[in-house]
Design goal:
Main location (chain A): membrane
Membrane topology (chain A): Multi-pass membrane protein
CATH topology of chain B: MetI-like fold
GO biological process, one term (chain A): transmembrane transport
Order of helices and strands of chain B: HHEEHHHHHHHHHHHH
Number of domains of chain A: 2
Largest sheet of chain B: 2 strands, antiparallel
CATH class of the largest domain in chain A: Mainly Alpha
Protein name (chain A): Sugar ABC transporter permease
Distance between the termini of chain A: 52 Å
Radius of gyration of chain B: 25 Å
CATH topology of the largest domain in chain A: MetI-like fold
Largest sheet of chain A: none
Number of helices of chain A: 16
Structural class of chain A: mainly alpha
Strand content of chain A: under 5%
Shape of chain B: flat
CATH superfamily of chain B: MetI-like
Number of strands of chain B: 2
Helix content of chain A: over 70%
Number of domains of chain B: 1
Region (Disordered) (chain A): 1-22
Oligomer: heterodimer
Strand content of chain B: under 5%
Structural class of chain B: mainly alpha
CATH architecture of chain B: Orthogonal Bundle
């Protein structure tokens, strides 16, 4: 092959494609190399999940060994973990927290984002800076007085301290929704006003339908964030087992079943499923949303 | 269109303006109340609490600068600051370089981009608790998959989350595994680089590496800065992974009742937020926790200002949008 390549092209006029060969070969090698590296990277991200799954279906004894592949497939492990912990209760709590918080976020954040993106008013820039500031603030900074307040209201030990704030203010969602709404041309809103729409009607009839992909992405992020939240439930429900969410329970489950890697990994895998399913159905929204947080300043 | 609006007859304007104001107020009202209740008030209260001794049961007692002075004498506070600094430096560098590297490779792919991007992004959607346990299982020194693979090539696995020296690198590995969101942001920025710039560089005889260095990198530098600031904030807030890795490493049966696992092993995973949580919500020394929260706030605030400035520059560069 190399010999053919080094041959001067003038010698083989019968095959005009010959002079291009060296580039093609290098191009092909390049193609193979980049795709091999890309695939290796993809696998690097996927294999830990694969190991979790394989360990989850191993027998109790095998899960303790260094075997990577299950000798026999114990699918019932996924069912048996429900006997070892009240997972349905935790699942219910997680869903209550995530769904109520997401609903509340939509009610409070869509109007605020609209006012920040499409209405002109004095103090708008300052308000937006405050939103960014709140978004960047570590939750631990405000935890002490908030815990104090909820505690004096007698609501610690429940998930309400986590849900209620979403009905008023969620900085990240307001930020993300505003970014999406900025991409809708102002002329649509102006046209609606000329047609005699009130601001509320312009929001509900024009902006909300047009911003639907952005709203979907924001709702997904809000749902996932609350579903994955650990600090909040630990802070407010740490002492009250019946109120635990899946994430919080999972952290404890591993400790209680320290030697049973298969059970621990079965629960871990079950906890990851909602995120995976959501992502498969709404991949575009996720990617758009995550891109918007970083690129469209 | 704007011209027609401007030429509108004067009569209805005053009322329209009042309606407009009412609309703004109505739309912003929940957010305004929420901001005051959940950020404004607690922020002020945190600073006030930081000058007191308060255990949640007895009334706060004013103690001046005692909490702040105690920080200098508290070896665990020093340890927590050191640990968090470690993450701010190592995690920020590792996360940015790693995400940039992976995104640069994916950006060069001609096919299968979607699949590989999906594989890279998926772990960052997993609950952080689950992701930490995944790595705890994969990296467990006796019989774990990673130890098995290391054994094949004749290496011995470190003890990871049971060894003070390896616990922080272990957590960093988890954080890299779940850095898919940053990868997607960088990937989008790379794919947005105008093709003409590459063609111009190619005409000047620049190879792929020089093109990446002289065209890609400068063009996406605002996004990289975003990634760096974002990673610093992430490192400052590191909590879940540290707590879960500590509790799993210590084999603690009760990860909410016992305190021994916090910072395990040998306080190597005691980050600033973890220590704040320990003092405030395990020992109920709310005053001291509030003082630490105030320190954390000042640092986060400084980092946020950097981010806001870069966003302002960005939106100023974009043509005429209503921007920040």
């Amino acid at each position: 092959m190399t010999a053919t390549l080094t041959k001067p092209p003038v010698d083989v006029p019968a095959e005009p494609s010959q002079p291009k060969r060296p580039r093609d070969v290098r191009g092909a090698l390049n193609w193979v190399a980049t795709h091999a590296i890309g695939l290796a990277l993809g696998l690097m991200f996927a294999t830990p999940v694969l190991f979790v799954f394989l360990t989850a279906v191993m027998s109790d004894d095998q899960a303790f060994t260094s075997d990577l592949w299950p000798r026999e497939w114990h699918w019932e492990n996924f069912v048996e973990v429900f006997d070892k912990a009240p997972l349905f209760q935790y699942l219910f709590n997680s869903l209550a927290y995530s769904l109520l918080a997401t609903a509340g976020m939509l009610l409070s954040s869509i109007p605020a984002a609209y006012a920040l993106a499409k209405l002109r008013w004095r103090g708008r820039n300052i308000a937006f800076l405050l939103v960014i500031g709140a978004m960047m603030l570590p939750p631990q900074v405000v935890a002490v007085p908030l815990y104090d307040t909820w505690s004096s209201l007698g609501l610690t030990g429940t998930l309400w301290p986590l849900i209620v704030p979403y009905f008023l203010f969620d900085a990240f969602s307001i930020f993300l929704l505003r970014q999406f709404m900025l991409t809708i041309p102002q002329s649509y809103v102006d046209a609606a006003r000329v047609d005699g729409c009130s601001e509320f009607q312009a929001l509900v009839r024009i902006i909300v339908p047009m911003a639907r992909p952005g709203i979907a992405a924001t709702a997904l992020f809000c749902f996932l964030f609350t579903w994955n939240d650990y600090f909040g439930p630990l802070l407010y429900t740490g002492e009250v087992k019946e109120q635990w969410t899946l994430s919080l329970a999972l952290a404890t489950f591993k400790g209680m079943h320290i030697v049973q890697w298969n059970s621990a990994m079965a629960v871990t895998f079950l906890t990851m499923i909602p995120a995976i399913i959501l992502f498969i159905f709404a991949q575009k929204s996720f990617v758009k949303g995550i891109t918007f947080t970083g690129v469209k300043g | 269109m704007t011209a027609t609006l401007g030429a509108r007859p004067a009569p209805g304007r005053g009322r329209a303006r009042a309606r407009h104001r009412l609309a703004v107020l109505g739309f912003m009202a929940p957010a305004l109340i929420g901001f005051v209740l959940f950020f404004g008030y607690p922020l002020v209260a945190t600073v006030v609490f930081s000058f007191t001794k308060y255990d949640l049961i007895n009334a706060p007692e004013f103690t001046g600068l005692d909490n702040y002075l105690f920080m200098f004498k508290d070896p665990l506070f020093t340890k927590a600051v050191q640990n968090t600094l470690w993450f701010v430096v190592v995690l920020t560098v590792a996360r940015t370089v790693f995400a940039l590297g992976v995104a640069s490779v994916i950006a060069r792919l001609k096919s299968g981009v979607g699949l590989i991007r999906t594989l890279c992004y998926l772990p960052s959607l997993a609950p952080p608790v689950a992701a930490t346990l995944v790595f705890f299982m994969v990296m467990r020194p006796n019989g774990g998959p990673l130890a098995t693979v290391l054994d094949w090539v004749g290496l011995q696995s470190p003890l990871w989350f049971s060894d003070p020296l390896w616990a922080k690198p272990g957590i960093t590995a988890i954080m890299l595994w779940i850095s898919g969101d940053l990868m997607i942001i960088i990937l989008a920025a790379i794919l947005d680089v105008p093709q003409e710039q590459y063609e111009a560089a190619e005409l000047d005889g620049a190879g792929p590496i020089r093109r990446w260095w002289h065209v890609t990198l400068p063009t996406i530098s605002p996004v990289l800065l975003f990634g760096i600031v974002n990673s610093v904030i992430l490192a400052l807030q590191l909590f879940t992974q540290a707590v879960v890795a500590g509790s799993a490493g210590s084999g603690s049966a009760d990860s909410t009742g016992a305190t021994k696992y916090l910072g395990y092993p040998d306080n190597s995973t005691l980050t600033f937020p973890v220590y704040l949580y320990t003092q405030g919500f395990r020992y109920f020394d709310m005053g001291y926790a509030a003082a630490m929260a105030t320190v954390l706030f000042v640092i986060s605030f400084a980092v946020t200002i950097v981010l806001v400035q870069r966003m302002r520059k960005n939106s100023a560069a974009e043509e005429g949008g209503p921007g920040a």
